[in-house]
Fold this protein.
Amino acid sequence: MKELLRNLLANKPADYLEIRVEESETTSLRFQGPVLESVNAGTRCGGAIRALVNGGWGFVTFNDLAELEGKVDMAIQQAKLVGAAGSDVVLAASPVVEDVVHVQLGEDPREVSLADKVALFAGYNELVLSRGKPIVSSRVSYADKFTKLHFANSEGTYILQHKLDLSGGIMAMASNGDISQMGHVGFGSSTDFGVARGKEEKIKDACERAIKLLDAPTVKGGQYTVIVDPHLAGIFAHEAFGHLSESDHVYENPSLQKIMKLGTKFGEKHLNIFDTGLDVGARGYLKYDDEGVATQHTDLIKEGVLVGRLHTRETAGKMGEQPTGNARALDYTFPPICRMRNTCIGPGQASFDDMIKDVKLGVYAIDSFGGQTNGEMFTFSAGEAYMIRDGKLAEMVRDVNLTGNVFTTLANIDMVGNDFTPFESPGGCGKGEQAPLPTSEWAPHVRIQNVVIGGSK
């Protein structure tokens, strides 16, 4: 494959060319209530070519290697047309690499039969449904994908990268006829099917949590001191701040360029946010991105100050900065764009007891049941929450929605926990309709002042 790709890239009338060839094996399954809705297993092979001519991109996909030479010529012709129309793409320099990357496997999901996977998750599903009322339904899903990815470019780079992504979730739904609540268990990994095993106790806890939420009062809306758990803190780092750090958003938006100016203070010295592709086992792990650039640890906020952002070769070239290994494509049917990997809030010095002891009235928000962002504004729904009264956890409350401005919120983070927690969940990032792209979000507990929480009056 290496010689084939290099021969196809040689002596072509383009400023830059790259070819990705992807071979993948996948399995997936889904239960909805007692019904096994789908079971799938398959293989897929295809690839993509990107050509750059006079500042214009051409992008062509293929499913047959026999078509490859003609597809290369097609991508070059597209690029010429785009370049002639006045495009101005410039690529930042990147080292030439030749490497083969293997997965550091624990339990290989390819060695677990599809029947055994179905049996494992059928057992989890039955565990939820056998709890009985007020548990009324379940939703269970699992997917894995093992990929062999060849990458070659006209600068001389050739990388063969083996990659694994797997994830799943078990949801318990409770209802008393008037309201419904959910409890869930999620997992994910880039190395080990073993993370899917041994979930029985967590599933039982999720069922009881959903049941308790039925009787929990609705939180009273207002402004509170809020402590968020590591999962919700990580989601905040990804959704509310991480996307603003993706440089395609920045260079296309003059107003955001002013806000996201390097050197701007966004928080206090205990606040550190970074993005990294180096954490083996995380769903956001990858040694090289989809432009063949080595991934790295990229500081975004260091001691409260904006010090970096995430780049592809194109965004780095436009902004006169260095690539960070953040060019990612969901698969060969998409061109790579600027995406996060594992986005983290770094550990601080505070214990949970330090955070809670002087809170007269506050909320402890745990887990996330989704949310949305719109520029600087965000709304997140906590999966579980408790009031804090006189420095102690009090009653469970439900329907806790945290709303605010990301920059105001960053400035209001007054304590960061010392309990930095790796956490892998199913799903993934949905930017650019390339979803779900595997990402991770790790963090400690974080305390935030003056958070607006929607609820009852």
